[in-house]
Amino acid sequence: MNTNKAAQNLASYLASELKMPEEQQEVLAYGLELILLGLLGIAAVALGGYLVGAPLEALAALLASSLLRLPGGGWHLQSPLKCLIFTVLIFNIIGYFCKIVSQSANIHYIVLAIILSGFFSLAVSWFVAPVINPHKPLNSAKLKARLRRLAIAVALVVPLVLLFALGRWTALALAGAAGLIWQSANMCLLKVIKRKGV
Predict the structure, then answer these.
(1) Are 160 and 129 contained in the same domain?
(2) Fewest CB within 10 angstroms: 96, 151, 170, 189, which?
(3) Whether 48 and 59 share a structural domain
(4) What's the farthest any 2 CA atoms get from each other in the chain?
(5) Three-point CA angle 86, 90, 91, nearest 5°
(6) 56: closest CA among 90, 99, 17?
(7) What is the pLDDT of residues 104-161, one digit of tens each?
(8) 11 lies in the same domain as 84
């Protein structure tokens, strides 16, 4: 399914019904494509998680990672399909790994992993966020500061939520911590690569 074409068609229909100008139709099409890609990504991660026996864990890792990625920034692959495939693979590996580990790991080690994920994501958010894509520069200093504060807030709140969830949903809490670590590592690595000009 071509999400771009589907979004364009839906935007064209909505714009004609609502009598929107051309430039608003383009913005609407872009927003609709992002929504469609997001929903497709969630469904694909859930399906992949179901196939490996860890759908909730994969989604928990995706959610925690996405909460930090939205304000913190991160990698952009060359096409939505590559991004979708990469996302499905990574988060299903994380989900499966966390499900297996949570079944045999001592709870104290999982608590430590969650705390360390919080400190790591907080440090990366404090010093690195937001990581800006060179193809989509962010010129507003106010917006950069707001995104940084939001990333810091996510890095503080998400680990606390995971610690509260730990007693009942151990594997999901561990997967959420792994998702935070994954996204923080991506942000950190992207910043290093940008500095070296690779």
Answers:
(1) yes
(2) 189
(3) no
(4) 60
(5) 115
(6) 99
(7) 988 999 999 999 999 999 999 999 888 876 666 677 788 888 989 999 999 999 999 9
(8) no
